[in-house]
Amino acid sequence: MIGFNFYPRSPRYVTPEAARQVVEALPDATCGVGVFVDADPEEIRKTAELAGVHCVQLHGRTTPETCSELAREFRVIRAFTTDAQFRAENAAAFSDCDVLVDAYHPDIRGGTGQTCDWSAARATLDFTRFLILSGGLNAQNVGRAVATVTPHAVDVCSGIESAPGIKDHRALKKFVAAARAADRITAPSRS
């Protein structure tokens, strides 16, 4: 998967038209993901169509009903942050979605470099069909994260950047190698 941030206040924001150019060049097995924060369903549909993405990652206050509606058209990833109000069991209300667990920051939506609460993320496994771990992951800690949480996938942003929005290809290669090595060790134990 490769994410395209459509949240205008993010330093990683990309236009749907620019995202479409990348999506059209992706290998068939790679899924483009549109990342949204508190967007309404029509905005999500319009942007996803312009960008050519078939998967949407929803941050903020998106309801289970909206996620179910969008899940008829897209693969939906509902993002949660491990703030003081986070309860792993809340993920069960989003049964039509994959779940991403990320770190909480009061002012920034994603890409903070802060590590999420791994025990809270692990507890979420019991309430979702597919768990994606995010939040402060990098080549140095992804192995421990995978061993601790046993997610189905990991998400990385700032952990492979030289500056916000600028990906470092060497850091990306190191991250992927570390994540794959950890997955080989933990995959048999994953439920």
Question: If you had to describe this structure to a student in words, what would you say it looks like?
Answer:
By secondary structure, this protein is an alpha/beta fold. The protein has a single domain, classed as Aldolase class I (TIM Barrel), CATH 3.20.20.70. Strands 1-2-3-4-5-6-7 form a 7-stranded parallel β-sheet. Strands 8-9 form a two-stranded antiparallel ribbon. The longest helix is centred in the C-terminal third of the chain and has 18 residues. The radius of gyration is 16 Å and the shape is globular. The two termini are 22 Å apart. The mean pLDDT is 91.
Write a brief caption for the model.
This protein is of the alpha/beta class and about 190 residues long.
Helices and strands in order, then pairings?
Layout lengths: L1 E4 L10 H10 L6 E6 L3 H11 L3 E5 L4 H8 L3 E7 L16 E5 L15 H7 L6 E3 L8 H8 L3 E2 L6 E3 L2 E2 L1 H18 L5
Parallel strand pairs: 1-2, 2-3, 3-4, 4-5, 5-6, 6-7
Antiparallel strand pairs: 8-9
Helix content bin:
25-40%
Per CATH, the superfamily is Aldolase class I
The helix/strand class is alpha/beta
Known CATH architecture: Alpha-Beta Barrel
Q: What portion of residues belong to β-strands?
A: 15-25%
Give the radius of gyration. 16 Å
How many structural domains?
Answer: 1
So what's the CATH class? Alpha Beta
Output mean pLDDT. 91
Principal-axis shape: globular
Tell me the strand order in the biggest sheet: 1-2-3-4-5-6-7
Tell me about the biggest sheet? 7 strands, parallel
